[in-house]
């Protein structure tokens, strides 16, 4: 992100990505570059930059290629340095990871370390990757916020719902270690799901199943309501012909569900644009408030180490 100061472009935020992940390569956070928020970008490939020039024009056609940029702590170029970076063609992955991580940190802070957060961007492979990465790494949390907003669908997502409704089957103990809950990979406390009007198809069905299985409450806005699968064929002019292929109904009543209706929330909350411009998320804040309220009254099962049985008098068969 950048802003303008004293006639120059100035970094407002540097997206760091993950150095071990090629899908999250962050050009300005690489070793030897180490750009910082507050520094100025003064030149690109020797061409001077100021607030009357277009930074994106200077980068046109240079994705994946080495580019020399001049950056420094002052707008006049004093103590500046020239470094080589390799721009990426899209900043979407970097921004998504930063948004998701910011939300996770906010939930952790506002729940006093009790709540976890996972965003599920789709109900296919990408969403399953995110669920595996975030949900199971936070099974030490008392509760969880699952974010379905902007979910663009995929499969019928009963598999994530099944993971979230696991009951506590056993307590287990080792001779010297701590007590263990089984299943181990589970969050047994309250759960809240965030939804909005930009979630559709599998993103409609996921919260519907979340409610139907009584996993937790839905917070936000009614989902899109575009659930039907549709198949067709491409036309020579680049268009296509598509037709609905299937729809869902309740087996008990034969009532059609979800399509053209979406899944409504239990707690209706708008995404306030005024607060959004201040870096706040009104829907996330409402979900955190609901999770805190539920965790305050939730009483988890306390495992107690049982007494060892006395088998000294048992006779061999």
Q: Please give the radius of gyration in angstroms.
A: 25 Å
Strand tally: 15
- Look at the structure and give the mean pLDDT: 94
**Most strands sheet:** 6 strands, antiparallel
Structural class: alpha/beta
Task: Bin the strand percentage.
Answer: 15-25%
Q: If helices are DSSP runs of H or I spanning 4 or more residues, what is the number of helices?
A: 7
Description:
The chain has 317 residues and is α/β, with parallel strands linked by helices. It has seven helices and 15 strands. The strands form four sheets. Strands 1, 2, 3, 4, 5 and 6 form a six-stranded antiparallel beta sheet that branches. Strands 7-8-11-12-15 form a five-stranded parallel beta sheet, sandwiched between helices. The longest helix is centred in the N-terminal third of the chain and has 19 residues, at 92-110. It is globular and about 90 Å long. The mean pLDDT is 94.
Summarize the structure.
It is built from 7 helices and 15 strands. The chain has helices spanning 55-58, 92-110, 125-134, 158-164, 202-212, 273-277, 282-297; strands at 2-5, 8-11, 40-44, 47-48, 67-72, 81-85, 115-119, 143-147, 170-172, 180-182, 191-195, 217-220, 230-234, 240-244, 267-268. Strands 1, 2, 3, 4, 5 and 6 form a 6-stranded antiparallel β-sheet that branches.
């Amino acid at each position: 992100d950048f802003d303008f100061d004293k006639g120059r472009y100035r970094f407002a935020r540097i997206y760091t990505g993950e150095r071990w992940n090629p899908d999250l390569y962050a050009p300005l956070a690489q070793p030897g570059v180490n750009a910082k928020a507050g520094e100025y970008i003064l030149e690109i490939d020797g061409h001077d930059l100021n607030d009357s020039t277009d930074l994106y024009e200077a980068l046109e056609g240079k994705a994946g290629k080495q580019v020399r940029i001049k950056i420094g702590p002052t707008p006049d170029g004093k103590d500046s340095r020239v470094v080589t970076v390799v721009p990426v063609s899209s900043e979407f992955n970097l921004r998504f990871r930063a948004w998701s991580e910011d939300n996770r940190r906010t939930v952790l802070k506002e729940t006093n370390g009790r709540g976890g957060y996972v965003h599920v961007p789709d109900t296919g492979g990408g969403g399953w990757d995110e669920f595996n990465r975030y949900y199971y790494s936070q099974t030490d949390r008392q509760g969880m916020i699952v974010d379905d907003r902007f979910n663009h669908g995929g499969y019928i997502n009963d598999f994530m719902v099944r993971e979230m409704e696991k009951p506590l089957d056993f307590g287990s103990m080792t001779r010297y270690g701590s007590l263990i809950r089984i299943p181990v990979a589970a969050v047994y406390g309250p759960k809240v799901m965030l939804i909005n009007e930009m979630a559709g198809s599998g993103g409609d069905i996921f919260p519907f199943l979340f409610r139907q299985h009584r996993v937790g409450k839905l917070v936000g806005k009614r989902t899109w309501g575009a659930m039907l699968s549709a198949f067709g064929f491409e036309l020579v002019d680049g268009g296509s012909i598509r037709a609905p292929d299937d729809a869902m109904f309740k087996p008990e009543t034969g009532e059609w569900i979800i399509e053209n209706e979406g899944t409504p929330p239990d707690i209706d909350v708008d995404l306030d644009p005024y607060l959004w411009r201040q870096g706040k998320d009104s829907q996330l804040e409402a979900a955190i408030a609901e999770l805190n309220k539920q965790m305050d009254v939730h009483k988890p099962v306390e495992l107690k180490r049982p007494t060892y049985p006395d088998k000294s008098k048992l006779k061999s068969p």
